[in-house]
Write the structure tokens for this entry.
Amino acid sequence: MMIIDAHVYCLPQRLRKINPKLLLSERKIINAIYEHPEGEYALELAAPEAISTSMKTNHIDKSVLVSFPWGNHDLCCENNHYLFEIVKNNSQFFWIASVQPCNKDWMKEAERCINLGAIGLKINPFWQNFNLDGPETIQLIEWLIPQKNVFLMTHIDQAYKQTTTLPSHLLNFVCKYPNAKILAAHMGGGLGIYALHPPLAKTIKNIWFDTAVSATLKMIRFYVEAGLENRIIFGSDFPFNHSHSQGQVLNGISSLELSPETEVKIFKNNFYSLINLN
């Protein structure tokens, strides 16, 4: 069975150092990554060589390299360029670019990256200081919807947190734009459970959910039971998940004892459906 990991971070060498002298715009990333007790170890794993080694060890065929959603536009551009240079000569990788919608030049960068083969655009409104259901995202998705083979990937926090990127923000957003194609990281913060409610199931019909919930993988079974087996995509959040491991997420999904047909969908088919490669 082919396995595709749709959520893997890869950073330029200078940004893998524990003290890269980042701007104040990156304060939230500094707190979450660079000042984390295991930050130095995780950053070392965000190198293409380490990712390839992990893939080989865990029998993962392809990974989607994701550019960090930096607060600073120039850092997004730097990370995007780095990923393009890696992916252009390596068929085991796809890539997703990051954009900072608060910057006036975000559209130019988005166009550049899509023309270079990026399959999606990544944002994290909390880190980037805007609201997921605010005007910045609305402008972004109105531009993105006509790009039929490109999707929006967004970080979604769990509902108990106090951020600008909650499941409620995602719901507000997709109620206005039900045709927007979205990959909601971290199982969309639990929003998919409400696919059990028929009116809401129609609203979230264009949302895919990745499995970057390394500490609570049983959520995946709940989503399958809610009828979302066609919308769940394997994504590890490597190397910044709690275990810093692709294998832990992969093995955790396998331990859920889902049907072989459902596993094939999660590990490959649903991703290809998202990017229109079926």
